[in-house]
Amino acid sequence: MSGEFVAFFLLSLVTLGGAVFMLSLTRVVHMVVALAFTFLGLAGLYVMLEAEFVAFSQVLIYAGAVSILMLFGIMLTRHDVDEEEIDRRRRHRVLAFVAVLALFAALFKGIVALVPAGEGHLAEANTLEIGKALFTKYVIPFELVSVLLLVALVGAIVLARKEEDDA
Known about the structure:
The chain is mostly helical. Helices cover 83% and strands 0% of the residues. Helix 1 packs antiparallel against helix 2 and helix 2 packs antiparallel against helix 3. The model has no long low-confidence stretch (mean pLDDT 81).
């Protein structure tokens, strides 16, 4: 068992654990912290894949900016904790834990079976390769995603204004 294997296992555990906790926790602030752990675990996995630029972007954009934005959104809105909702979530924790273990085992077995050890060639200058691919081969999907994100932002503003008017 190599150190790379142990690091992959731990980072995968942090990533999946953060995702499961994000789904199962009841307090919204705790959910955001768990989501930040998921983002950081993913960044570590990107570093292991020698995709440092993607890892840096993951930490900067998702773990930093998105988590902070979500925390500000939480602080600026009202949250009433429903006791029935908390009881209902507690009943499902054991089942969710078993399901996560099964998913983790299946993913782990699938990844080990698909990726042969020690083979494969990664690009030396991955940031340069990403830039070239983004602005040559994938320029149309890149622009479509930017328009989609803009439409989602406008939609979120419209929905927030409607809720504000209804209240």
